[in-house]
Amino acid sequence: MLQQSAIFIRVLCFIFILFAAIDCRASAPDSVLNGEYIFTSKEAEFVGSYGDEEVWEVGELEYKLLTFDGQGNGDWQEIYTTGGDSGSFTYKVFTDGTVQISDDDGYHILSKNGSSIMGTYLDSDSYDIFIGLKKSTGMSNANLDGEYLAALYSGDKNGEFGGWEQWELEARCLLLTFHGDGSGTWEDVLSAADLDSGDLTYSVNDDGTFIITSSPNATKGMISPDGNIIRLSEIEEDEFMISIGLKTSTGMSNASLDTAFLMSTHEAELAGSLEESERWEHDARYALVRFDGQGNGTWEDLLSTGDLDSGDLTYSVNDDGTFSMGDEDENTLNIVSPDGHCIMRTEIDSLQLSISFGIAQSDISNAVEEFREEHLLRNYALGQNYPNPFNASTEIRYSLPAAARVSLRVFNVRGEQVATLAEGCRETGTYTVRWDPGELASGIYFCRLQVGALSRTVKMVLLR
User: Fold this and answer.
1) Nearest alpha-carbon partner for 66 in 57, 54, 74
2) How far apart, in whole angstroms, are the C-alpha atoms of residue 104 and residue 275?
3) What is d(CA 215, CA 228) in angstroms, rounded to the nearest whole number?
4) Looking at per-residue confidence, does 185 or 352 come out higher?
């Protein structure tokens, strides 16, 4: 009896080791994410080199409708296009506001009131940043009332070089004023070109989508349910425009900016030309930015197309919600939303542009540690052994995204260790290990790769 109890305890301990490190974040009720969200996304990809010069292509602007049921299941479909794709997914919401979507390598965060979601896909050669706003009911022109500072990013395809598309890019920051009656004005406040201004008319639909009717291209717009965020976009053949705006406030101060934000940044630099086409080089970052409510803070890159960096910052918030950071010049404009849940940063001059958008985390106690563990968990891999089943020996492959101390061991169904295949420090890379089970009996065995507190496991079948 004692022997059976000991075996049972060992099995329980083994199962705990297998699954305890799958995700260290505490779950929040999935019901906080429910309803329909319309997303727009913009991507860029490094496609090659011309001599020593990088060549990037700017991908198409996409619209998607994602529906979350509040119970961890959802559907998506491409909209505003003929014959768009569609599919389904599952999702999980965590207490820090981050969201994990099945079969999705992106990093997502939900605003505290559920009105917006930001997603980021990023590696060394490409990035895709998208923002989704929740659809509403009972909206009208009266809900779009007030001033918004909006960062605008646009591009025109101006030719090809060596089979690569070439684009002319532009960024501006606008002050959009809506009067709540279908009329308004727009004014450039930051631009590398001449500043301009004009009138506009608009029409808001019941679900919060709207059209800038005075625009020649009938600009599509959307307002968040709380009225603090707007998004504008246009898609035409060989050109695009996307804009995100935050509402201005009154009575804001440093105390209004007192939490941590996950922030996505897209940067482009005019680095030269290819024949008669502009050549832009692109970078993107995903960072944790902390504000202490007293004018001080820190920032740390979590992902980047280039090197990771970090540092301290100082800031000063104005009454209307705009704020400055450090020694920024007149080419930069920052704003925090009235509820303090979102921030936006725009930097523009004649040779470069930078646009950032951030959403506040709900629980920031372990933000950096949790992200690092999740990122590592997603990017180190233990492949299925081959052949499987096997009767003599089998090969096991594993990959590390960064140098780490690893342990690769084999266990039987009772949780007893029967082999150690790798132990110690390994550099970044992919490794292949051969396992010869010797005189072990036929049956099921488990190979476990452990890196710190995180683990991956595959089941192997030995047939004599």
Assistant:
1) 74
2) 38
3) 22
4) 185
DSSP state of 422: E
Domain boundary among 362, 397, 422: 362
- Report the alpha-carbon distance of residue 368 to residue 364 in Å, rounded: 8
Structural domain that includes position 248:
30-362
**355 shares its domain with 416:** no
**Are residues 213 and 240 located together in one domain of the fold?**
yes
- How far is Cα 426 from Cα 49, in angstroms, rounded to an integer? 32
**Selected residue with higher pLDDT from 52 and 70:** 70
Average pLDDT, the chain: 83
Both 436 and 288 in one domain: the answer is no
17, 449 Cβ separation under 8 angstroms: no
Residue 25 confidence class, pLDDT cut points 50, 70, 90: very low
**CA-to-CA distance for 432 and 393, rounded, in angstroms?**
13
- Is cis: bond before 387, omega within 30 of 0? yes
**CA atoms of 344 and 148, how far apart (whole Å):** 11
> Full-prediction pTM beyond 0.70?
yes
Residue 461's identity, in one-letter code, is: V
> Residue 426: which CATH number?
2.60.40.2550
Question: Are 286 and 395 in the same domain?
Answer: no
pLDDT in tens, 399-451: 887 677 889 999 999 889 999 999 988 887 789 999 999 999 999 999 999 87
Contacts of 142 (CB under 8 A, 6+ apart): 180, 181
Q: What is the largest CA-CA distance in the chain?
A: 86
Structure tokens at 298: 């820190």
How many CA atoms within 13 Å lie on the side-chain side of 394?
A: 22
Residues 396 and 283 in one domain: no
pLDDT of 66 higher than 90:
yes
Q: Find residue 267's DSSP bridge partners.
A: 283, 354
* Domain shared by 316 and 453, yes or no: no
The neighbouring-strand residues paired with 268 are 282, 353
Question: What 3 state SS string does 178-205 have?
Answer: EECCCEEEEEEEEECCCCCEEEEEEEEC
CB 395 within 8 Å of CB 386? yes
Structure tokens of 184?
């308004």
| Edge-to-edge strands, sheet with 417-426 | 417-426, 404-412, 443-451, 454-462
* Calpha distance 7→149 (Å, rounded): 65
195, 212 contact by CB (below 8 A): no
Phi, psi of 375 (to 5 degrees): -65, -40
Burial 250-271 (b: 16+ CB within 10 A, else e): eebebebbebbbbbbbbbbebe
Residue type, 333: L
